Amino acid sequence: MAEWLSPPERLAIAYASRPVRALWTGLILLDKRLAHSARESREPIMVQLRLAWWRDQLAKPPAEQPRGEPLLALLAPWHRESAALIALVDGQEAQAVGEDGGAALDRAREAAIVALARLSGVPVTPALAAAALAYAQGEPVAPRGLPRAMRPLLLLDHFDRAGDRPRWRVLAGALRKGLLGF
């Protein structure tokens, strides 16, 4: 499933500790899949039906989920925090039907990042909560106080802000943040 990630996303995940990589991969892929399901060009009722399927599947224990969807298998370790993933579904739906301008999706992304930290055994500090909120709202992420398990957050933010800077500068900045955490 790593082939579904962009090269910057793969690089960001590579800087997480090995046990946490699958959690990051699942979160990023689910967010991308939900965004694709909720594209603006689709009829609102079809968007709601597609997202309702994800909501229903994520609410089930992993043993009861369909085996034909590899993303659900990847998300099995998230079962204790499935409410955060279901909130992502709800946030995408709220944004797709124009209910709140994306505020629910921002809150859901923040909650999912915090849930990932809990699943990783990382204490949820004020610095971590602030970084999760900043990333979810598209603000710059402050690197202070983020443990290695959460380092992909810094790199994802770095690549999101790359703009039209020369590639070598973007890569050099990514290597610095990946190796040193700032």
Which descriptors would you attach to this protein?
single chain, 182 residues, mainly alpha, 64% helix, globular
What would your notes on this structure say?
Helices cover 64% and strands 0% of the residues. The protein has 182 residues and is mainly alpha-helical. The chain has a domain at 17-142. Helix 1 packs antiparallel against helix 2 (18-37) and helix 3 (44-59) runs antiparallel to helix 5.
- Fraction of helical residues: 55-70%
Output the radius of gyration: 16 Å
Helix count equals: 9
Strand content: under 5%
Which H/E pattern describes the elements? HHHHHHHHH
Multimeric state: single chain
Low-confidence stretches: none
Mean pLDDT across the residues is 91
Main structural class: mainly alpha
Shape: globular
Total strand segments: 0
Largest sheet: none
**What's the N-to-C terminus distance?**
29 Å
Short synopsis of the structure:
The chain is mostly helical and 182 residues long. Helices cover 64% and strands 0% of the residues. The protein is globular.
